[in-house]
Write a structure and sequence with these properties.
By secondary structure, the chain is α+β, with helices and mostly antiparallel strands. The chain contains 20 helices and twelve strands. A five-stranded antiparallel β-sheet has the order 3-4-5-7-6. Strands 8-10-11 form a three-stranded antiparallel β-sheet. A two-stranded antiparallel sheet has the order 1-2. β10 and β11 form a beta hairpin.
């Protein structure tokens, strides 16, 4: 029935032919695979020119993958051979299309050289069956790595940053991969290097060289393609809609699988139901219980999987840059292992006490020098905490150097402002203007930190900018309001900055 549907270009049970065929094949293969292996593996030996010791290591709907040793180089390669039984059950026309599709897969995979793309070595044909050889990756697929439990956020982000770089290079050559998913990402065991493979559904941008119509894996398929699959669109319609944005959606869905162990839709549902869920935007984006996904990675995934293509990342390279930026974020528990507790226990109380002390000295009309020393008394507490909390083993890392630079600069600007106002305005008149300026310095410091640290610091910087205006309007409340605001800031950054929980 499936073969008749293929010849007629129609569908079966409301499903596009290719998807339904693959589903049926996988079910039959799961049942008959062990029996076939037991009956035929001992007596059947595949022979290919220039390769010895061929051993089957994988089998899919399109081809069989063998491991073999190249005779001249003694290099261990993986060799993919088109399935003879797939050709036998088709008519001559469809069999020829399958051969062309298989050869095009090898050609497109070989078109782009990149360290995170499995390289193609040789292409040939034996006994009417096309084959090509490629690097034999010693490792597991991302799907296998996440079968028992999800990856750590750092591990998942690192792998997908590498794959995004490779996909960006593919796109730059005018090629769309078309089937990015955890199954097609191989991770080398020795160095955890990720490599993308299987260009069976790839095609050149702007062409309609697709022979299978809408195909792919529904759980990782962009919604615009799922809509085409549901209404059984032609290859020409697919080529008009399929863009790099669809690959970027699949990258986000694959990252989500790495972080949670699950696809964005339930893969156990019938394929038609999966397509309907994807097309309607009914995704499983609730973080499973017991799993913590950093807010920034969650945001990256959701942006990739926006229903509207123009709302996704414009390029895979842009996605890779975001992942790399997150990977290079400061790790407070690595750079300053005890900073979180000491900010709350030492710096925050010191800020409050300094504010109360200045307010009390104002009422007593104490000398300016004593008031100035009390204002600056919170800095020794901050610098002592930074020194005590810093990691002692190894040289200072960028996070340590940057944090020290920011607050040393903050201290220098504060002293310069204090002295300048005292010289210009004289005794007593400088203090009401000092606190708005000091708040402005703090606003600038938090905006500077938001560039390389947490985006949330921009909101704190905005609050301090508003506070500077408030302090100018009610100067009599300056010392106390500033002191309590500084203590509250310590609380906010220790509770809200994920880096303090990031090891």
């Amino acid at each position: 029935r499936l073969e008749r549907a293929a010849e007629q270009g129609t569908s079966v049970s409301g499903m596009p032919f290719q998807l339904e065929y693959d589903r049926c094949y996988q079910s039959v293969e799961a049942l008959t695979g062990p029996l076939r292996q037991a009956l035929f593996a001992p007596s059947h030996h595949m022979e290919l020119p220039d390769y010895d010791e061929l051993q089957e290591i994988g089998r899919g709907g399109m081809g069989v993958v063998y491991r073999g040793i190249h005779r001249q180089t003694r290099r261990t390669d993986a060799i993919k051979v088109i399935r003879p039984d797939r050709l036998a059950v088709h008519g001559d026309h469809l069999a020829q299309e399958l051969r062309q599709q298989f050869r095009r897969e090898a050609q497109l995979a070989a078109l782009v050289a990149h360290e995170h793309i499995v390289p193609i070595y040789h292409v040939g044909e034996v006994n009417g069956c096309s084959w090509y050889s490629m690097q034999c990756v010693n490792g597991k697929s991302l799907k296998e790595l996440t079968s028992d439990s999800p990856l750590s956020p750092d591990h998942a982000a690192k792998l997908m940053e590498q794959i995004s770089r490779a996909v960006d290079q593919v796109h730059r050559h005018g090629v769309l991969h078309g089937d990015i998913k955890p199954h097609n990402i191989l991770v080398q065991s020795e160095d955890q290097k990720a490599m993308i493979t299987d260009f069976g559904l790839a095609h050149v941008t702007g062409t309609s060289d697709l022979t299978t119509g809408v195909a792919g894996t529904p759980a990782y398929m962009a919604p615009e393609l799922a809509c085409l699959a549901l209404r059984r669109a032609s290859a020409e319609e697919l080529a008009a809609v399929r863009t790099s944005a669809a690959d970027i959606y699949s990258l986000g869905a694959t990252l989500w699988c790495g972080l949670t162990g699950n696809a964005p839709v339930d893969e156990h549902l019938p394929l038609a139901e999966q397509l309907k869920n994807v097309a309607a935007g009914r995704l499983r984006l609730t973080v499973p219980e017991g799993i913590r996904i950093p807010a920034e990675l969650n945001r990256i995934c959701r942006r990739c999987m926006q229903s509207e293509p123009e709302l996704r990342y414009s390029t895979a390279g842009q996605l890779a840059d975001e992942l790399l930026h997150w990977l290079n974020r400061p790790r407070w528990n690595r750079s300053f292992p005890k900073l979180q507790q000491q900010l709350l226990m030492i710096v925050a109380p010191a800020m409050v006490l300094a504010g109360l002390g200045v307010s009390w000295l104002q009422r007593l009309k104490a000398p300016d020098s004593l008031v100035a020393l009390t204002i600056l008394s919170s800095y020794p507490a901050l610098f002592m905490v930074l020194a005590r909390a810093s990691r002692k083993d190894g040289p200072p890392d960028p996070a340590q150097r940057e944090l020290w630079s920011i607050w040393t600069g903050h201290f220098a600007a504060t002293v310069a402002s204090l002295v300048s106002l005292k010289v210009l305005l004289g005794t007593g008149a400088w203090l009401p203007l000092f606190y708005p300026i000091w708040a402005g310095h703090s606003s600038l410091a938090f905006f500077a930190k938001s560039g390389n640290f947490s985006v949330g610091y921009r909101w704190i910087g905005t609050i301090w900018a508003i506070l500077a205006i408030v302090l100018a309007l009610i100067p009599e409340a300056g010392p106390i309001l500033f002191g309590f605001s500084a203590a509250l800031t310590c609380l906010l950054i220790t509770v809200g900055d994920e880096s303090y929980r990031d090891r």
